[in-house]
Amino acid sequence: MKIIETDALHIAYLDDGAHTGWPVILSHGFPYDVHAFDDVVPALVAAGARVIRPWCRGFGGTRFKSSACIRSGQQAARALDIVHLADALGLHQPVLAGFDWGGNASCAAAALWPDRFGALVSYGGYDVIDVQQQLQPAAPALERTCWYQHLFQSERGRKCLYENRQALCRLLWRDWSPGWVFDDSTYDRSAASFDNPDFVEVVIHCYRWMAGAEAGNPDLQPLENKLAQRPLITIPAVTLDGIRDPLKPDGTAHHARLFAGRHSHRSATCGHNFPQEQPDVFARAILDVKHWFTTQERGSSA
């Protein structure tokens, strides 16, 4: 594990492959961590990549630099963390790939700063949070699946997550990935990241902000205003769906209109934790968008 300093954070990350390799940033979600990509990394390194896997704010060894920093979990904060990480490491137009919170942060970063990144792989389609849409009810079956989000709106929910984070997160792993059998060591490897002292505050803020129940960081509101306009993603992109994911019962193929660059949508038989359940497919998507970006760059310089 390495640590890099940004404006707000000491970001913990894993760094695999040659430092001269083409860069890719893999971003995890809740309640997962960098080990969701363990079986994705070897194929990327073999193809010449330098693979950066940061722990999200509130997870693992990543720490806020000051007690005065807002423990925000909103999308603009997490997207900006990716930008600051890339800058601190001197990465030139890295490929972004992520799922769950990591897919959201990667999509938001690609939408806001398209010139900073080469290509995108997103599990969950165009995964930019629309707070106004979140205020509307979903189908009852999906509302039932999202019980944890409803729980987190209350102080009872905060206390439940604080006192029972391991049992609650293990339950989510099982609920969201039906058919995926994982052992205790696989879960424990990632679950250690939930002991971060800011885990509960960041998670609770994320879901309350999504539901319109808590304000975000006012300094980030201009970025959230831009994201609310649903800006098109213009860099090459592959979007992914797990056909057994109860959080995405209708899939995200209909998001294609929000991608203005070269785009492919793919599905695989798995649940929500796509990179851990289908690592070869996830890695293939990254290699493909990297090739598209490289080809595009060669064409534009010809």
In short:
This protein has helices at residues 41-46, 75-89, 101-112, 131-134, 140-145, 147-151, 155-176, 184-191, 199-210, 221-228, 274-277, 279-301, and strands spanning 2-5, 9-16, 22-27, 49-54, 63-64, 95-98, 119-123, 237-242, 263-268. With 302 residues, the protein is of the alpha/beta class.
Number of domains: 1
Residue-averaged pLDDT: 96
Instruction: Please give the count of helices.
Output: 12
Largest sheet: 9 strands, mixed
Low-confidence region ranges: none
Q: How helix-rich are the residues, as a percent range?
A: 40-55%
Descriptors:
Rossmann fold, nine-stranded mixed sheet, 41% helix, globular
What secondary-structure arrangement, pairings included, does this model have?
Blueprint: E1 2-5, E2 9-16, E3 22-27, H1 41-46, E4 49-54, E5 63-64, H2 75-89, E6 95-98, H3 101-112, E7 119-123, H4 131-134, H5 140-145, H6 147-151, H7 155-176, H8 184-191, H9 199-210, H10 221-228, E8 237-242, E9 263-268, H11 274-277, H12 279-301
Parallel strand pairs: 3-4, 3-6, 6-7, 7-8, 8-9
Antiparallel strand pairs: 1-2, 2-4, 2-5
Helix pairs in contact: 2-3
